[in-house]
Amino acid sequence: MRPSLPEPSGNASDYGLSTSDLVAQADASTTIDLAWLFAVVRRRLWIMVLVAATLLGLSGAVILLKSRKVTPNFQGSFQLLVEPITAEGRLARLSVSAQSGITNNSPTEISKVGIGHADLMDYETQIRVLKSPTVLKSIVAKLEDRYPDLNYPSLYENLYIERISYEKDGKLEGTKILEVAYGDEDPDKIISVLEAISEVYLEYSLQERLDGLRRGIEHIDKQLPELEERVDLFQGQLQNLRETYDLSFPHERAEDLAIQSRELNSQRVTIQAELTEKRANYAGLTNNLAQGNPIPILLSSLSTQQAYGTLISQYQANEAAIDRDSAIFESDSPTLAVLYERRASLRQTMAKEARSIVAGVAVRIQELEARLAYINQAEAALNQKTEVFPKVLHKYSDLERKANVATESLKTFLTKREALQLDASQQEIPWELLTAPKIWQTADGIPLAFNTANPRRTIMIAGVLCTLVGVGAGFVVEILHRVYHTPEEIKLDTKLRLLGVIPRLAHLNPALPAWLRRIQAVPIALWEITQHLIPFGLVPDKANAYQNLQQSDIAYRESFRSLYTNISLLGSKQMPIRALVVSSATPNDGKSTVAEHLARTAAALGQRVLLVDADLRNPELHERLGLKNNYGLVDLVQHGLNLNEVIQQSPDQPNLFFLAGGALIDDPVKLLSSPQIEHSLEQFRSFFDLVIYNTPPLVGLSDAQLLTAQADGLLFVVRLAKTDRGLVDKALESLKISGSVVLGFIANDVQDYRLFNYKVNRHHTKRELILPPAQSSGLSLPSASEQPLPVSRFQNKPTVDRD
What's the structural domain count of the chain? Predict the structure, then answer.
């Protein structure tokens, strides 16, 4: 029984990957590297060279023809001195400095300014102005009656203005001279145009520049009244602030306010302390006065003590006398009566004085309260001024700054006006015409003709452009010719594994000479003999050609051995690969050749191989093998022939068997879908070690998909430089839809294939292999009679009878 086949869903089998995992995505990005670029150049070099050479030849012929028709061109010029070369230049330099606001140049500094460095103008800008439409159109207007074909573009194109320079100390220094040149075919026209240009330029130096200066003066005069009004406005506002807030000296005024604030604060603290003391003293004095005790009041201060000390002493002495006499005399005695009367008098006096002192303290309290109220009022006013003063000071500073700016602007405008007036007076002298307009001539007085065309340079430029176009054409052909060039490109695009690389066999190329195709029939022994005769020149070069053919054949055979080995390694011991379908996207990709040589290689390695020509639409494998197509797969399925009647054995390889396609039929798909074909394919697997089916192309046909469903996988053959990429994508898409298993791809017709030159030692000594007796090892080898019978007989195998 054959191994189980994958389900139509397309799951991965034991031998390969399903196309659902291997088909490249349509939008996969391709990395362009240098190797690819060089490969494209190498492949399309002949197209690039052909296109570039053709274009260069045509363009070169056109350039040479046009160069012969070029009319000679003449040149003429004149020179202008555009700056003074005397001390006037230095004075003009002062004028420029004055216009820039620089007024501190001393005569010593003026003398240090060299004439060569005292440029009054920007020459590059001046040249652009002289070639501007405003200036040149006036020249065209003067000459339009005489030369109607003269216009601004032609005049601008043929007019050249440059500053004459000279070398000084290894550096180029510019002079004050402009050279104006003009070129044309007509010498008379050159002189007329140059004369008109010189007149316009001199007039420009006299009028246009002065008009510009006068316009500048007029502009300044228009601005001066506004500037003066602004200066007056700011000055008036400053004066008003000075008068209102006493801001003659703003910073000193701020210090005065701070000092006043500190003084008022100090006075307020002192008065508050004294007022507190007086109020406390007044309360005590009032209490003593109410109790009728005037003595503490009279002793309340140092001044009262000094003023009323005698009175208090008298009162105390009288009291002492009363105390003394009371012990001696009776209370109604005259002596005590006098003392009592005196006591009353002294008490009245002290009470009166005490009331006077209390009244004085009350008055002092009122004075202190009045002073405190005044100080508080003064502090409030001062605080108000202090709060407003920063804003006033800020406003004052802002007005002062604006006033200064306006004043400086006014001064600058006045200075500019004076400078422009001075400059206008200095520029009244126009430019000087140093040389009159004239035609450039040779030493013999012959007008010097110029040929503006440069065929050599034009051809060189055309060569570069043609080369670029040729390279572009090569890349366009590369992009439009959507084929594969290397196996790596196929692997990257399809994501399939590379199973084998089949080189291009040289002697199969029909373009080679007949003797080179026939030389492969020379025996190898004869070729080896010729190797010893080559140094003596006794053999032609055909021997070397034969050697190359032999090397090509070896590489070709080794490529199929490598392919068979890779396919064998895809299987396993339990489930080896027994049935293969070989197909391609389009015809002529080499699938039949690959199927044939793969079958021969497997047969040569001892495998019993059946090669089936399943291309029922165009069977041709029998012609390659030198066999007949009397009966084949169609007869086996439709008419029930047995295998012995339809399978043929290769005459040169006993292990290679072949099943032809058979008779042509109208509907091969119906035949390949029938139950009989499945039974026949099962028989093939049971009789042979390997079955190889050669099928029609994949694109547009379903034959290969039907057979792949009954096989272990499909080998996809892609021919380099021939198979279209789009058709490969379509073929893989159809395999993906059908769930077919693709084992990998085979790159066919690979050029520049090189086989590693591994030398074999041919000078070995032959010796006979003596085997030990069989009984000594316990092993018995089968005799020749015990070898398996040829498969072509099928004596012990089931057969299919005819209908």
Answer: 2
Is 359 in a helix, a strand, or coil? helix
CA distance 472 to 488: 24
Query: Any bridge partners for residue 78, and if so which?
Result: 180
Neighbour count for residue 314 (Cβ, 10 Å): 15
Boundary-marking domain end, from 388, 423, 458: 423
Q: pLDDT (tens digit, 9 = 90+) per residue, 734-767?
A: 999 989 999 999 999 888 766 555 554 544 444 4
Domain boundary among 365, 400, 423: 423
Per the domain annotation, does 725 fall within a domain?
Answer: yes
CATH number at residue 655: 3.40.50.300
**In this structure, what are the phi and psi dihedrals at residue 297, rounded to the nearest 5 degrees?**
-70, -40
The DSSP secondary structure of 244-268, one letter per residue, reads: HHT-SSHHHHHHHHHHHHHHHHHHH
Per the listing, tokens 């920063």 go with 390
Tokens 């489930």 label which residue?
A: 575
Q: What is the mean pLDDT of the chain?
A: 78
- How many Å apart are CA 362 and CA 369, to the nearest integer? 11
| Structure token digits, residue 324 | 């003394």
The model's pTM is 0.47
Q: Which residue has the higher pLDDT, 401 or 770?
A: 401
- Our CA dihedral for 456, 458, 460, 462, rounded to 10 degrees, sits at -140
User: 55: which residues sit within 8 A by CB, 6+ positions away?
Assistant: 462, 466, 469, 470
What residues does 79 pair with on adjacent strands?
A: 179, 435
**Residue 89: which H helix or E strand, with range?**
helix 87-99
CATH number of 280's domain: 1.10.287
Query: What per-residue confidence (pLDDT) applies to 687?
Result: 92
Find the domain containing 671 and state its range: 17-23+495-502+576-755
Count CB-CB contacts under 10 A for residue 583: 30
Domain-located, residue 350: yes
pLDDT at 759: 55
Dihedral (Cα; 154, 160, 161, 164), 10-degree rounding? -170
Closest C-alpha among 204, 199, 185, 208 to residue 78: 199
Q: How far is CA 637 from the centre of its chain?
A: 68
Q: What is the pLDDT of residue 41?
A: 85
The two structure tokens encoding residue 683:
């028989």
Q: Would you say the C-alpha torsion 324, 330, 335, 339 has a positive or negative sign?
A: positive
Tally the C-alpha atoms within 13 A of residue 150's C-alpha that lie toward its C-beta.
Answer: 26
The H-assigned helical ranges of 617-724 are 621-625, 633-638, 643-646, 668-672, 675-687, 703-708
SS3 545: helix
Query: For residues 701 and 566, is the Cβ–Cβ distance under 8 A?
Result: no
Compute CA distances 269 → 275, 371, 372, whole Å.
10, 11, 9
Contacts 24+ apart (CB under 8 A), 117-121: 118/89, 118/90, 118/92, 118/93, 119/83, 119/174, 119/176, 120/83, 120/89, 120/92, 120/93, 120/96, 121/82, 121/83
Going by C-alpha positions, the residue among 132, 190, 185, 127 that lies closest to residue 160 is 127
Confidence grade of residue 71 (pLDDT, cut at 50, 70, 90): confident
Position 539 in a domain = no
pLDDT tens track for 557-609: 899 999 999 999 988 777 889 999 999 999 999 999 999 999 999 999 999 99
Report helix angle 45-68 to 34-43, nearest 10: 70
Beta bridge pairs of residue 579: 691
Cross-strand partners of 691: 579, 610
**Distances, alpha carbon 534 to alpha carbons 387, 519, 795, in Å:** 122, 17, 56
For residue range 242-279, what is the model confidence (pLDDT) as tens digits?
Answer: 777 666 666 666 677 778 888 888 888 898 888 888 88
Q: Is 50 exceeded by the pLDDT of residue 778? A: no
For residue 644, being part of any structural domain is answered with yes
Contacting residues for 175 by C-beta, under 8 A, at least 6 apart: 163, 164, 165, 166
